[in-house]
Structures are given as C-alpha cells and as structure tokens.
Design brief:
Keywords: Heme, Iron, Metal-binding, Monooxygenase, Oxidoreductase. With 449 residues, the protein is an alpha+beta fold. The protein folds into 2 domains: 113 residues, Uridine Diphospho-n-acetylenolpyruvylglucosamine Reductase, domain 2, CATH 3.30.43.20; 327 residues, Cytochrome P450 (Cytochrome p450, Orthogonal Bundle). It contains 18 helices and 13 strands. Helix 6 packs across helix 7, helix 7 runs antiparallel to helix 12 and helix 13 packs across helix 15. The mean pLDDT is 94. Bound molecules: protoporphyrin IX containing FE (HEM). The site of protoporphyrin IX containing FE (HEM) has 25 residues, from helix 12, helix 13 and helix 18.
C-alpha cells in the first residue's frame, strides 16, 4: 500500500531559501540542525538546491513508500554519479534494472554460515587492537575504530595466507581514497579535482594502488583455486542461471562497494557508542555488569552474542541516535506521485535516517539515549521499520546482521578490558560527512582489572 492510500499527506516548502542558492547553504552547512525541522513543514517537503528541485520525505510512511518502490525511485543523481567513480555499477550504485542480478552474486558472502567466520576475524583483530593500547594513553577513538574495521573488512575480502600485503595496502590506501571521493561529492567540480594538487595526487596514487591490489589478488586466486571463506572466492565462483560469472570489472566494483559500505559505517557506530557510554554513566554501569558477567575480561566471540542483550540494545540505540548513513538519495525515473503529490521525472528524492529517528511522533523523548526503548515490551509499540539505520526494501543493507554483530562484539570485547574516558573539557558535535562522525574524539585508556 502506498502512503497516500492511508491518510492525506501534506506537501510543504522548505523555509529559508535564498535566490540562486535556494536551500543549499542550510543543506551543506548545517544539515543536522536543518533537516529534522522540515517535518514541521509537511510530510513531503520541496527544497531548492541551486536551480534544481528535490523532495524530502520527512515522515515514516513516506520514506517507506520511497524505499519500497525501487524502480520508480531508483539510485541516481549527482551523489551516486560521483560514487560511481569508485564503485562503478556495484550492487550499491547500480540501477534497479541490474540490481537483482548483482545482489544475487554477492549475497552468498553474507549468509549466516559465513558470519561466524567473520566474527572470528573480528575476535582476532579486536584482541590485537586492544592489546596494543597502554594504560593512560590518549587515543582518538574514531581513528582506532576505523583501523579495526578496515582490517576486518580487508580480511573478509581476502583471507588467503599470502594476502597479508593486500590487507596492509587496503589499510593504507582506502582512507585516502574515501576522503577524496567525499570531497568530490560535496564539491562537484571535475576540473578542480584534476589539478595536480598534493591532495589530488595522493588520491590518484591511492586509487591506483587499490586497483593494483585487486588485480594482483584476482591473479593469485585464479592460479591457486583453494576453497576460501572470503568474498573474493564467492565473487569468482558465482554463476547466474545461464552459467555466466562476473567480469573482472564487476568483481572490482563489488569489492570496492564492500569497502565503501562496510568500513567507516561500523567504525562510526562504535565511536558513537563509546562517546554515549562516557556521557551516560548509568548505561555504562549496566553494560559493564553484563560484559563482566558474560566475558570475565576475555574478548567476545559469536557464541557470546545471545548472552549480551543489553550490549545489543546499546548498539541499536547508538545507531538510532547517530545513524552512520545519515542521508540517502534517490531519483524519480518517471513522472509519478509520492505521498499523493505529483513529482516530475528527474527530481531528487532525499531522506535522512538522522532526522527520521528524531521524530517525536514515533520515538518518545527522541533525543534521550535510552537503550531500554529496545526492550521487546517497549519496542513492540513502535511502528514496523521504525528505524532505517540500514535502509529498507530490496536495497536494504546487505551487511546489516554482520554490522550489528561486528559492533556488538567489538564494544563488548573492548569494554571487557578497557574504559575509554573522554578528555575533560573536550566537547564534540556530530559532523555530517560521508558518514555521521563525532569529529576528533580523544579518549584516555583506563585498564580494567
Ligand atoms: C553500522 C554499519 C552499517 C550501516 C549503518 C549501514 C547502512 C546501510 C544503508 C542505510 C544502506 C542502504 C543505502 C540506500 O538505501 O541507498 C546500506 C547498503 C549497503 N550496505 Fe550497509 N551499513 C553498514 C554496514 C555494512 C557492512 C559491514 C557491509 C559489508 C561488509 C555493508 C554492505 C552494504 C551493501 C553491499 C549495501 C548495498 C545494498 C544494495 O543496494 O543492495 N554495510 N548500508
């Protein structure tokens, strides 16, 4: 059922637009202050970005209508075109017409039987990371979490013994590439990015090195066809119903997609969780009690997950308040209607998990960090798909279960051994980049006995 069949939905106009720029200043400078307020203007709100028009879906039903009509509201628009520089027609950026095929190829890598293997990788990596810290040191929580999730994702892609160099190369080069792609998304001026500035040279070099790693790994895996528990093996062996496999370019695009989708998002979720624990001592106390009772100081493994329900609620609530993917776009491919209102072909459709998760009509006291809103007896009062942390419909995140496990295991394993304390007087504000980050978050490592 589409939203407009349930009740009538208001079409509004975004406030504060100025000639020529429209609402671009608010959108690019202060999106996290501006977007949540748009729900007061309507369920669907028309925005001007320069000379083009975008429609923001502001309420739950309207967002669901967009997510569940992927052929009408398809991937497209400037952001997606820029992402394609890196991801080509990978599963996350390809149009609906290609999507089912791409998703079928990559889906086996996310099946339950493989998740235990990824949890073992996480166990190894988090043990190594936490073992490298010294009591009383000041670390930047975001940087440390990115290091962790980059290594886990790279090892998920290439598990061969001989792939250690490839994992290191991904760890070195991916952050540079991702930063460069983000710069190209917010400043869509190709000529500027072609200038031989130090940042552009670093970007081109890091991109070339990542491409080289993938070519080298393809070559290695083709020569030695051992059955490996990793993404590259899944992509190399997958066949469609006609027995046709993926081309090298398609494999490249899927590997890059997993890096782009799977590294910084869990790192952001984890970093926010550490910040929120430091700000909410009651929650921290309950979490530490659970972690101590279950783990007794050792790192967590997949078998511990079911015994860590409070930790899982902390993760769900951190991801509600600070969803790493804070802004999502689509493009209307034909003249259509959304929430009962006409939307011309080519219009951008946008929505924000950050704004939607703060809707007081859905979440009581939405700004409050309250893991117990996810207790079954409380969560049953929320509408279905109340949060869109992982999107929805046929383009829902492929790594949703994996990401929840990854963040829960890392949070439990680190808090079993360490308390991360914020530096006195250091204030943070959410920074809306490609992901929603805390910005610099220096924390002192306090060993727990
Ligand atoms: C907390 C961590 C994560 C969050 C918040 C997150 C969020 C999302 C969201 C919102 C989407 C949908 C975007 C849209 O509709 O345009 C998405 C798609 C996707 N995610 Fe995640 N993600 C996370 C972790 C991961 C991980 C760990 C992986 C893989 C290792 C992954 C792989 C993907 C892929 C492949 C897609 C594209 C799916 C498709 O279009 O069919 N994600 N993610």
């Amino acid at each position: 059922m589409v939203a407009s069949e349930r009740r009538s939905y208001r079409l509004g106009r975004a406030p504060g637009g100025v000639p020529l720029l429209g609402n671009a200043l608010q959108l690019f400078r202060t999106p996290l202050d501006y977007l949540p307020g748009l729900r007061h203007e309507g369920d669907l709100v028309r925005l001007k970005i320069g000379t083009s028009t975008a429609y923001m879906a502001c309420t739950h039903d309207v967002v669901q209508e967009v997510l569940h009509n992927p052929r009408t509201f398809d991937k497209g628009g400037e952001f997606i075109d820029t992402m394609k520089l890196l991801l080509g027609d990978g599963v996350g950026t390809c149009p609906a017409a290609k999507h089912r095929r791409q998703r079928r190829f990559i889906q086996p890598a996310f099946q339950r039987d493989r998740l235990d293997h990824y949890c073992r990788l996480m166990h190894d990596e988090v043990t190594a990371l936490a073992g490298s810290w010294r009591p009383g040191a000041v670390i930047d929580a975001g940087t440390e979490m990115s290091r962790l999730t980059t290594r886990v994702t790279a090892r998920m892609m290439f598990s061969a013994d001989i792939a250690a160099d490839a994992v290191t190369a991904v760890q070195r080069n991916f952050p540079v590439v991702w930063k460069g792609v983000y710069r190209r998304m917010v400043i869509p001026l190709p000529l500027l990015h072609a200038l031989p500035t130090p940042a552009n040279i670093r970007f081109t070099r890091a991109l070339r090195r990542l491409d080289d790693v993938i070519i080298r790994m393809l070559d290695t895996y083709r020569r030695d066809t051992a059955d490996r528990d990793d993404l590259l093996t899944v992509l190399l062996t997958a066949r469609d119903e006609r027995g046709i496999g993926l081309t090298d370019t398609e494999i490249h695009d899927e590997l890059m997609t997993v890096l782009a989708a799977g590294v910084e998002t869990p790192a952001s979720g984890l970093t926010w969780a550490f910040h929120l624990l430091a700000e909410n001592p009651d929650v921290e106390r309950k979490l530490l009690a659970e972690v101590d009772a279950v783990l007794g100081g050792r790192p967590a493994s997949a078998a511990d997950l079911s015994a860590l329900p409070y930790t899982q609620r902390v993760v769900a609530e951190a991801l509600r308040l600070y969803p790493p993917v804070w802004f999502i776009t689509r493009r209307a491919v034909t003249d259509t209607r959304l929430a009962g209102h006409p939307v011309p072909a080519g219009s951008s459709i946008v929505f924000s998990p950050y704004a939607l998760h703060r809707d007081p009509d859905v979440f009581r006291d939405p700004e409050r960090f309250d893991p117990d809103r996810w207790l079954p007896e409380n969560a049953c009062e929320l509408p279905r798909n109340a949060t869109i942390t992982f999107g929805g419909g046929s383009r829902k995140c492929l790594g949703d279960v994996l990401a929840n496990q990854e963040v829960t295991l890392a949070l439990a394993s680190i808090t079993a051994a360490w308390r991360l304390r914020p530096l006195p007087g250091h204030r943070i504000r959410p920074v809306a980049k490609a992901e929603l980050t805390t910005g610099p978050l220096p924390m002192t490592t306090e060993a727990r006995s």
